[in-house]
Amino acid sequence: MSEIVKLLPRFWSTALFADHRILKYMNEEEKEIMLKYLKSVHVTYHGDAKTGFEITFSFYENPHFIYLVQSKTFWFTREGISSASGSQIGWTTDKIRKYTMLHTDTASFFKWFAEDSQSSRDLLAEEIVLEFWPKAHKYHLIGKNRDTEVQRRVLTEHQSARKNIKRKRGGEKSDEGAMSKLTTISAKLQKAEEEATKLRCTRVIEYELMLVEGERKVHKECESLRRQIYDQRNEIIKNIPHFWLIAFLSHYALHYLLSEEDQKIFRFINSVNVEETEDNEGVISGISIIILTLKIVVSKRQYRTLL
To answer: Are 240 and 259 in contact (CB under 8 A)?
Structure first.
């Protein structure tokens, strides 16, 4: 794709001016520089893309700064971006340098590019890496059909002359051929993005199912251990007279539920158990409360006494 891009005049500046999420970080002077002199944009990942990435903007020779290749490097941790180091701009135009560096209340792309930072997120970097760079072909097609006032104003006579020369030499035909190839590649990239999205979704679902299954297994193991402790507790409770009656009457909410007749019955409760219930797929769907009472044999006189 990079070879095709070289055949398209002002590919990257055209694409950039179609992404308003990046343009909002630029002041008017910076927009003019980008439109006139931006040569290419590139993103390089460190290692397996888990340790960090580098954003590189390349420019044509211009009267504003010395360094034509400017990069900003980002490093990752588990929490996100841990640090970022910028590069020197090398301003030769004092007016833009002062405007960019001194007006802290004004958006400045080059100030962002030059400064180091310590932050877990960088919205501009995320926009460039995740949206603009991989989808530059889309933004170019959008920008090519959108001739803005700013774009018309900053086109220099030199650029216009070069465009006329290319047209005389058959450059227009070359551009059309490049656009045709770019459209074909765009379609392939779109298909690849769709396949990648499906694959990511499938892997996410598989990973979530694996986590759920793991959580179920851990939960069952924990529940088994808890059940053993509860059983030991029940054996001890059996030797404590009227334990469950006293426990219910002492509870801040449950004691309101027990009538005098309930309290007579609760004197004979042997155990109270709470067990989880599962559906056919093994998913916990509810709980069962099991109350067991003692089987007692009393005479009529004893029964009247209890009542």
So the answer is: no
